[in-house]
Amino acid sequence: MEFTHTRLLVDNYKECFLFYRDILGFNVTWGDENSNYADFKFNGATLGIFERKQMAEAIGDEYSVDIEKADRTALIFKVKNVEETYQEIKDKVEFITEPTEQKDWGIKVAHFI
């Protein structure tokens, strides 16, 4: 398992995108100001931003504007095989989604808390 980046879940995606790109000068490696997801590189690190409402939909959670009930970050890990890793750790962590092919994202994912 490899930790790849931190993803910020935001309600003001375009404003955040422009802040990281134009104010802080981070290099955009994926996405644009209208894509609702973007990755930035800076000093060897990767930061992702994602529209919080879409993340809630992806994990089958109800979107809430109540900030105290909202997830604001996600840690992203890369594995060789999502299904195998899921089977190896499913009794040790609480999964909120089983391995799922995300056609829009072009990847297979599983989410745990």
Q: How large, in whole angstroms, is the Cα Rg? A: 15 Å
What topology, given as strand order, has the largest sheet?
A: 2-3-4-1-5
Q: What proportion strand?
A: 35-45%
Label the overall shape.
globular
The low-pLDDT segments are: none
Keywords:
five-stranded mixed β-sheet; 113 residues; alpha+beta; 7 strands; single chain; two-stranded antiparallel ribbon
Tell me what you see in this structure:
By secondary structure, this protein is α+β, with helices and mostly antiparallel strands. Helix content is 23%, strand content 41%. The strands form two sheets. The protein has a five-stranded mixed β-sheet. Strands 6-7 form a two-stranded antiparallel ribbon. A hairpin with a 6-residue loop joins strand 2 and strand 3. It is globular. It starts with a strand and ends with a strand. The mean pLDDT is 91.
The gist of it:
By secondary structure, the protein is of the alpha+beta class. Helices cover 23% and strands 41% of the residues. A five-stranded mixed sheet has the order 2-3-4-1-5. Strands 6-7 form a two-stranded antiparallel ribbon.
Present the secondary structure layout.
Layout: E1 2-10, H1 13-23, E2 27-30, E3 37-42, E4 45-51, H2 52-58, E5 73-78, H3 82-89, E6 95-102, E7 107-112
Parallel strand pairs: 1-4
Antiparallel strand pairs: 1-5, 2-3, 3-4, 6-7
